């Protein structure tokens, strides 16, 4: 098995996918770092101070002005009301929600990348792990080797898990190192609030507690890794079922984009909570943002994703071990 995994890793490295992904992440991190820097500079110029309290007060006023509009959908109004109460809580307790530093940038980058950007990176690696054997004509050689088929597929899946771990770690590391050039490398011990309980537009603060940012970042990384593994496994299943790599990538891409759209439109469609793409933004639960459908919790989303993961894994092995060679 070790030789099989080593062989698969060598094939993956030869394609230079991880290098390309690293370059993509690096470019995007630099773009977002510059955007956040410009935003901070404009805000400083507008308010005439670097005091974060003044900036937060301005955000509260902006949110209140938006809530006064009569043309707003009820779902958006509810999310803004939740955000407003959380901003007020931060201000009342003298806690900066955006403590400057690379650690804060990394946390926010991961939280915004969990439902689309990181799944797209994982899809680049996972979508052709098996289907590329068809396009390159090596599938016959692979399946006629004196090795059990499940072992061949398991070696590819373990390679995928290693790749997922490398991509998540590389994204966090590049975010920290590159953004730190501008914002500095401090902020690991900054307090972050978690534990907001949401009930519609009401925010229950009885369970709120302060967590050091490095602990919060580790929780974010764990949830990002879980989402990446589920998306990787679903893409892996498509790679087994669909002989064409572009077709498999197209199906997964459509599912991910539809999930991003559905998250803003499914509040009244309760059964949509069983779709994997509606449950990808796990970090919103610990940061206190409203879920796309009322009643969804971190536990329910994790269970839903694990069910999709298990089904995808079973289908992958069942299809691959019964695959005809011709």
The helix/strand series, from N terminus to C terminus, equals HHHHHHHHHEEEEHHHH
Strand order of the largest sheet: 1-4
Tally of helical segments: 13
Oligomer: single chain
Task: Give a short synopsis of this structure.
With 326 residues, the chain is mostly helical. It has helices spanning 2-14, 17-47, 52-67, 74-92, 102-113, 117-126, 131-135, 139-143, 149-183, 213-241, 245-262, 283-287, 298-321, and strands at residues 191-194, 197-199, 202-204, 209-212. The strands form 2 sheets. A two-stranded antiparallel ribbon has the order 1-4. The protein has a two-stranded antiparallel ribbon with strand order 2-3.
Structure, explained:
The chain is mainly alpha-helical. It contains 13 helices and four strands. The model has no long low-confidence stretch (mean pLDDT 83). Strand 2 and strand 3 (202-204) form a beta hairpin. The protein is globular and about 70 Å long. The chain has helices at residues 2-14, 17-47, 52-67, 74-92, 102-113, 117-126, 131-135, 139-143, 149-183, 213-241, 245-262, 283-287, 298-321, and strands at residues 191-194, 197-199, 202-204, 209-212.
């Amino acid at each position: 098995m070790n030789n099989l995994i080593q062989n698969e890793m060598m094939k993956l490295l030869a394609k230079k996918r991880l290098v390309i992904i690293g370059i993509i992440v690096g470019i995007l991190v630099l773009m977002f770092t510059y955007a956040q820097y410009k935003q901070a500079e404009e805000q400083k110029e507008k308010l005439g101070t670097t005091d974060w309290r003044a900036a937060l007060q301005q955000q509260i006023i902006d949110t209140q002005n938006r809530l006064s509009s009569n043309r707003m959908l009820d779902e958006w109004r509810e999310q803004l009301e939740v955000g407003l109460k959380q901003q007020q809580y931060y201000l009342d307790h003298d806690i900066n929600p955006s403590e400057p530093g690379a650690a804060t940038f990394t946390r926010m980058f991961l939280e915004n990348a969990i439902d689309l950007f990181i799944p797209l990176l994982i899809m680049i690696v996972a979508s052709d792990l098996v289907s590329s054997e068809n396009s390159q004509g090596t599938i016959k050689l692979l399946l006629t080797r004196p090795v059990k088929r499940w072992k061949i597929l398991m070696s590819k899946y373990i390679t995928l898990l290693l790749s997922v771990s490398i991509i998540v770690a590389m994204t966090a590391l590049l975010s920290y190192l590159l953004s730190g050039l501008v914002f500095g490398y401090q902020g690991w011990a900054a307090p972050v609030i978690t534990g907001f309980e949401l009930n519609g537009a009401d925010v229950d603060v009885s369970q709120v507690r302060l967590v050091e940012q490095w602990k919060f970042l580790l929780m974010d990384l764990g949830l990002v890794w879980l989402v990446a593994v589920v998306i990787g496994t679903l893409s892996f299943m498509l790679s087994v079922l669909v002989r064409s790599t572009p077709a498999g990538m197209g199906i997964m891409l459509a599912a991910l984009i539809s999930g991003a759209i559905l998250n803003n439109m499914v509040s009244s469609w309760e059964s949509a909570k069983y779709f994997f793409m509606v449950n990808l933004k796990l970090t919103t639960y610990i940061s206190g943002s409203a879920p796309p459908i009322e009643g969804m919790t971190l536990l329910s989303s994790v269970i839903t994703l694990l069910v999709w993961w298990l089904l995808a894994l079973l289908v992958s092995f069942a299809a691959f071990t019964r695959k005809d060679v011709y």
